[in-house]
Design goal:
Blueprint (H helix, E strand, L loop, with lengths): L2 E5 L5 H16 L5 H11 L2 H9 L3 E8 L2 E10 L11 E9 L8 H15 L4 E7 L3 H9 L3 E10 L2 E11 L2
Parallel strand pairs: 4-5
Antiparallel strand pairs: 1-2, 2-3, 3-4, 5-7, 6-7
C-alpha cells in the first residue's frame, strides 16, 4: 500500500466536489435530517464555491491517495481565510475528510501531519480546528494528537444550529 499526497488545483474541482459530498454525507447523514443535509450539501459544495476556495491563495487543499485512488483530502487556511479570527500566528484545519472504507487506516494522522508541516512552513505557532460536539471519534482523535478545547462556535446544518468545539494545538 503506497500513500501519497498531491496539492489540489482547479483541474481537480469536479473530483473535489464529488469527494466532499460523499465524505460529508457519509459522516453526518445519520445524525441530521435529510432536509438539512440536502440544504447544506447544495450550498457548501457547489462548483462555484469550491472554485473560489481553491483560488484563494490563503487556503490549500491536498488529496491523499492509496496507490492511485483518492481516499480523502485536507483543507487548511491562514490569515483572513480562517473561519474564525485566530490571528496571524495560527493555521486552521478546516477539513480532514476521508472516505468511510479508508477510515481507521492512519490517514487522519497523515493529513494532520501534513497540516502541521504547512503550519511550520508558514511559521505558525498554533494549529486549530472546529469539530462538531457530537463527532466523538474525531474529538477523541484530536485529543490523542494533543489538541485541547479552547472554546466553541456555532455551525449551521441547514436551519439547525449546532455547536462546534474549537480545539487548538500549540506548535513547539
Amino acid at each position: 500500500m503506497t500513500i501519497r499526497m498531491k496539492e489540489c488545483t482547479l483541474e481537480d474541482l469536479q473530483t473535489l466536489q464529488e469527494i466532499s459530498i460523499e465524505t460529508f454525507n457519509a459522516t453526518f447523514k445519520n445524525q441530521n435530517s435529510p432536509e438539512n443535509m440536502k440544504s447544506y450539501l447544495e450550498s457548501a459544495f457547489t462548483l462555484k464555491k469550491l472554485e473560489k476556495e481553491l483560488s484563494n491563495t490563503l487556503s490549500q487543499f491536498f488529496f491523499v491517495y492509496i496507490n492511485h485512488e483518492i481516499v480523502g483530502y485536507l483543507k487548511v487556511n491562514i490569515s483572513d481565510a480562517q473561519s474564525e479570527e485566530m490571528g496571524e500566528e495560527s493555521l486552521e484545519i478546516e477539513r480532514i475528510y476521508i472516505r468511510n472504507k479508508f477510515q481507521r487506516h492512519g490517514l487522519g494522522k497523515v493529513l494532520l501531519n501534513k497540516a502541521l508541516d504547512v503550519a511550520r512552513e508558514h511559521n505558525k505557532k498554533n494549529i486549530w480546528l472546529g469539530v462538531w460536539e457530537k463527532n466523538e471519534n474525531a474529538i477523541a482523535f484530536y485529543k490523542k494528537m494533543e489538541f485541547t478545547t479552547i472554546g466553541t462556535h456555532t455551525f449551521f446544518m441547514g436551519d439547525e444550529e449546532q455547536l462546534d468545539l474549537i480545539m487548538n494545538k500549540t506548535l513547539v
